[in-house]
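Researcher: We're reviewing a set of sequences before deciding which ones to prioritize for further study. For each one, I'd like a predicted 3D structure that I can look through quickly. This is Deoxynucleoside kinase. If possible, include the structure in token form so it fits the rest of the review sheet.
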Amino acid sequence: MTKQFDAPFIAVEGPIGAGKTSLALKLSEHYRFHLLEEIVDENPFLSKFYEDIDEWSFQTEMFFLCNRFKQLEDLYENQLSKGYSVVSDYHIFKNHLFAKQTLRDEHLAKYERIYNILTGDLPRPNVILYINASLDTLLNRISRRGREMEKSIDPSYLQQLSGDYEQFMRDHQHVYPEIPVITLDGDRLDFVANPHDFSRIVDQLDEAITKKRSLL
Ligand SMILES: Nc1ncnc2c1ncn2[C@@H]1O[C@H](COP(=O)(O)OP(=O)(O)O)[C@@H](O)[C@H]1O
Ligand SMILES: Nc1nc2c(ncn2[C@H]2C[C@H](O)[C@@H](COP(=O)(O)O)O2)c(=O)[nH]1
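Model: Here's the predicted structure for Deoxynucleoside kinase, in token form for your review sheet.
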């Protein structure tokens, strides 16, 4: 049974470099919501993963899964169960989305059994902001962010992830119509440098939060 709570729990999602962390940080400051940030550099396998995906993918995905499991357990205990609102730069589903691309079949079968056990009763976001963007935009932003290990990202890997995100968001809206998915055009919106673009996102989010509160 998924843990129940009433507070807004907003997840910002999208492929690598779409702007999730940047937008989540700005929203947490604007709304004074608790910010849940995914770990990246603390994953000891990630740099090895980018050098040899097949060799290091299982440990990479399992590390992310276990870390996020603990983060979300603590989030429920310390924030959501107490009525505090949250904005996060990830949704736990991303773990599965990456694993389906990076794990070979026999590893994926084991991973999915563990994923279902660990995530079955975790708190789930009740609003999703989904940033999509073209491959060129993603590659440019990854380059601008400048993480050494990401310089070896294969564009086809990123293209496949982007496609998987598109499909997942369509499926999610169909399966969970009560959870609004606000899609943002990452090619057109510069919420980092353009206050008008950011305020338009806030307007859409205000509407979604107000609507959810009216249903409580
Ligand atoms: N909408 C945007 N317009 C322009 N630059 C952006 C935008 N979103 C993010 N960036 C820049 O792109 C880089 C990646 O952003 P980041 O928030 O780390 O993406 P993600 O968390 O999705 O990987 C950062 O340098 C950030 O400043
Ligand atoms: N193989 C996986 N890699 C992941 C996962 N979550 C994040 N990441 C990588 C992708 C980027 O290099 C970096 C930061 O991710 P962003 O989406 O914030 O750009 O970490 C995962 O579950 N599996």
